[in-house]
Specification:
- It is a single chain.
- The protein has about 120 residues and is α+β, with helices and mostly antiparallel strands.
- A hairpin with a 5-residue loop joins strand 3 and strand 4.
- It is flat and about 50 Å long.
- The protein starts with a strand and ends in a 6-residue tail after the last strand.
Length: about 120
């Protein structure tokens, strides 16, 4: 089964500390290596900061509206994602718990991928 791990990043101010940033990067390098060795990673990327986000909606009549910033106003920041192919939800939850983003106040949302037969 395919699962998306959505990384709700911690306070971006933490990354201003070079020691924290170096430790965090090493933790992600180690996590990536574990995913590769297990053969479960389909995709995964970090996202740029909120200041680069745009939100698009289309009004009745087809008018496109583009707004600067993320869709939701929240204190948590979507920092990145992993798409995994694992046997079941328990395996996805185990990988989510191993993700560095789950530590120190971060959160990982785990969601199964919906598949459609067209």
């Amino acid at each position: 089964m395919k699962y998306m791990l959505l990384i709700a990043a911690r306070d971006p101010q933490l990354y201003a500390d070079p020691d924290f940033g170096a430790k965090e990067m090493q933790a992600y390098i180690d996590f990536e290596k574990a995913l590769a060795e297990a053969g479960v990673k389909i995709a995964g990327e970090a996202l740029q900061g909120l200041e680069t986000a745009s939100t698009v909606s289309v009004r009745d009549g087809g008018e496109r509206v583009v707004t600067d910033g993320p869709y939701a106003e929240t204190r948590e920041i979507l920092g990145g994602f992993y798409l995994l192919d694992v046997p079941d939800l328990d395996a996805a939850l185990d990988w989510a718990a191993r993700c560095p983003g789950a530590n120190g106040g971060g959160r990982i949302e785990v969601r199964p991928i919906q598949s459609f037969d067209y």
